[in-house]
Amino acid sequence: MPIHEYVPLEPPGCALCCYGFERLERLSDAALTHCTACGAPVRRVLGAPAITTGGAHLLREGHLAKNGFTQ
Q1: Coil, strand or helix at 5
Q2: For 7-50, what is each residue's pLDDT tens digit?
Q3: Would 42 disulfide with which of 6, 16, 50, 53, CB 3.0-4.6 Å?
């Protein structure tokens, strides 16, 4: 399940939504329209994806051969 980010449409909002908040939701769930704590209108914003590094060693020939793959 992805983490969605929300920001208030009309600041200041409450302590939960004044700087924005994150919520773990299913893709099939409808976007929130109001803060769950104070009822202020909020909107979903696009966040940066999580990019992991260090996976290049998994594509080396030695690692592939060890796991039964060949080129």
Answers
A1: strand
A2: 999 878 889 889 999 999 888 899 999 998 999 999 999 877 76
A3: 6
